[in-house]
Specification:
Blueprint lengths: L12 E8 L4 E8 L9 E4 L3 E7 L5 H10 L4 H10 L7 E7 L4 E5 L8 E5 L2 E5 L6 H12 L4 H14 L9 E7 L11 E7 L5 H16 L8 E2 L2 H13 L9 H11 L11 E2 L1 H11 L1
Antiparallel strand pairs: 1-2, 1-8, 2-9, 3-4, 4-5, 5-6, 7-8, 9-10, 11-12
Helix pairs in contact: 1-2, 3-4, 4-5, 6-8
């Protein structure tokens, strides 16, 4: 009898899927010695959950798992059903988290060592071809210890895994995806964060840089922290906009401010006609001050 060959495609990868039920966020962070891992591993759906599919991945597992979560199935039951139906489950890894924080993970016995999964409240971490079990332990601890937006907690966990030894073959690509109902640009889709580093010597550090840029452009300052467009603030904003050529005698101040924000890709930080986001004001000062 001829023994079948082991498939050559194996994403030596470590990832975390996580949920922040209070914020309504679900997401995935992943790093791999593989080109453009973000095109394969991470899947997320606002209000439903997130999945990471890796090792010898069947990318259809991601959307199929999320469909089952959306239908009300428990993450453990979802993975159990998918594994039982998959003749190659022993070579696959899948992490799954529901929007309410329930999580599950599957690591097949034929994935390359060190391989493993850890599951806790609001997260699942999984990896293969790892330096050792300390990689996953560091990721889980860091995720639980960090506060703040889910994207930053996921990224911190990913960096902790790398700091603990990461993947034996090294680094090449990374990705960070976070979904929230209505959280995407324009408010009509769920893609709150969607960042990829497809080929880089230090993809996690590069991903952190991209997240900082993303936060600058697309985060929304709480209304309680907006500055009223009155008194000295109004006078300063008007003077800066005039200096930059945005405001003249025929243009209303809110319209001029919106024009400036659109030019600088800051339109997601629009407050209202009577307020200005402090991040926008700081940038206006930097550009035209």
């Amino acid at each position: 009898m001829t023994r079948s060959r082991r498939p050559s495609l194996h994403l030596s990868t470590f990832s975390i899927v996580g949920a922040d039920p209070d914020a309504g966020d679900v997401g995935v962070a992943v790093q791999s010695k593989f080109l453009a891992v973000g095109a394969i591993v991470p899947w997320a759906r606002g209000g439903v959950g997130a999945a990471a599919v890796q090792a010898f991945p069947d990318v259809t597992v991601g959307p199929r798992a999320l469909d089952r979560l959306a239908a009300g199935e428990d993450p453990d039951a979802v993975l159990d059903a998918l594994v039982r139906a998959d003749p190659m489950a022993s070579q696959r890894q899948t992490g799954l988290v529901a929007a309410d924080g329930r999580a599950a993970s599957h690591t097949g016995e034929d994935c390359f060592d060190h391989r493993g999964s850890l599951v806790g409240p609001g997260y699942a971490v999984q990896g293969n071809v790892l330096a050792g079990p300390e990689v996953l332990a560091a990721m889980a601890t860091t995720f639980l210890d960090h506060t703040g937006p889910l994207a930053h907690r996921l990224l911190a966990a990913l960096q902790a895994g790398q700091d603990a030894g990461g993947e034996k073959r090294g680094m090449e690509s990374s990705a960070l995806v976070v979904a929230r109902p209505g959280g995407g640009y324009g408010g009509n889709h769920d893609r709150l964060v969607d960042l990829r580093v497809d080929h880089d010597e230090d993809p996690i550090s590069r991903l952190a840089e991209l997240l900082e840029v993303r936060d600058f452009h697309f985060d929304r300052t709480p209304p309680s922290a907006w500055f009223p467009l009155e008194g000295e603030v109004r006078g300063e904003v008007a003077a800066l906009l005039r200096r930059g050529g945005w405001l003249d005698d025929h243009t209303a101040l809110p319209a001029a401010l919106m024009d400036f924000m659109g030019w600088e890709n800051l339109e997601e930080r629009w407050a209202d006609d009577d307020h200005v986001d402090p991040v926008v004001l700081a940038h206006l000062r930097g550009v035209h001050g």
